[in-house]
Amino acid sequence: MTSEPEQQTGVGEPDAFQRLWTPHRMAYIKGEGKPTGPAPDDGCPFCQIPKMDDESGLIVRRGEAVYAVLNLYPYNGGHLMVVPYRHVADYTDLDPAETLELGEFTKRAMTALRKASGAQGFNIGMNQGHVAGAGIAAHLHQHLVPRWGGDTNFMPVVGHTRVLPQLLAETRAMVADAWPSD
User: What is the pTM of this model?
Assistant: First the structure.
């Protein structure tokens, strides 16, 4: 006969788990700072970020039609996004110049991340619509997540926690410095 695992019955009782507290993530979990609607003036952060200076907005590079910005809630160190300035929701809404520059910025971001951090691979993609996982579906953005061998370990898989090795301001400066010439 097998016994049932013992249930944790109270806060602070030993249960053999180590805990890494990340209280800054609560803003993301609660949806703070998310747009209240689909229009640019409904609080879209991707429309607000370009109005900030690069350091405050975590902007790595500005182009004519798009900009590269670090993700405030990264999956891995160096996780950035390429975002059109124009408030559009769907990839098919981009005009040819925006599509071209988004692609060029993606290539340059990969080059910069390889140079700055030794990234060995990338996850690149867009979540189109809320049902596809877009946190901010009203404003198109493409994710670039640098990857390294062994970067998926017990922390994100079992502990549901990401470990980032440096502050976002330091990562922004490092990637901006490594950005290839225009």
Answer: 0.74
| Domains of the chain, residue spans | 23-28+36-177
In whole angstroms, give the CA distance from residue 117 to residue 161: 21
Rounded to whole angstroms, the Cα distance separating 82 from 105 reads 7
Looking at the domain covering 23-28+36-177, what would its CATH class be? alpha beta
- Cα separation, 69 vs 179, in Å, equals 12
User: Choosing from 79, 87, 139, 141, which is the catalytic residue?
Assistant: 141
User: What is the band of 31 on the pLDDT scale with cuts at 50, 70, 90?
Assistant: low
pLDDT one-digit tens code per residue, 96-123: 999 999 999 999 999 999 999 899 999 9
Q: End-to-end CA distance of the chain: give it in Å, rounded.
A: 69
Q: Which residue has the higher pLDDT, 153 or 40?
A: 40
Whole-number Å distance between alpha carbons of 104 and 64: 12
Query: Does the annotation count 160 as an active-site position?
Result: no
